[in-house]
Amino acid sequence: MEQRLEKISQYKTWSPKRKTDSMLELDAELYTNLGLESKREERDLVKKYSLIIYRAIKKVDWQLGCAMLLSMGKLK
Q1: pLDDT tens digits, 19-72
Q2: Is 27 exposed, middle or buried (0-12, 13-18, 19+ CB in 10 A)?
Q3: Where are the domains of the chain?
Q4: Which residues, including other chains, have CB under 8 Å from residue 54's CB and lie 6 or more apart?
């Protein structure tokens, strides 16, 4: 996950919006793969990855990243 985020954030030809959109697609993909029978550990892992994604978004778009971290209660 971290490698994909690092790769996205280092594209020089991509706009900040495109980088943010790609990161949010990764986040949506994680949540889409969860189901009713997902174990607690799987849900916790997805939340952990979301936190990592939101911190990466904060580096690209500070305001959006802060808002997303605040919604998770993890703004530092």
Answers
A1: 999 999 999 999 999 988 999 999 999 999 999 999 999 999 999 999 999 999
A2: middle
A3: 2-72
A4: 27, 65, 68, 69, 72, 74
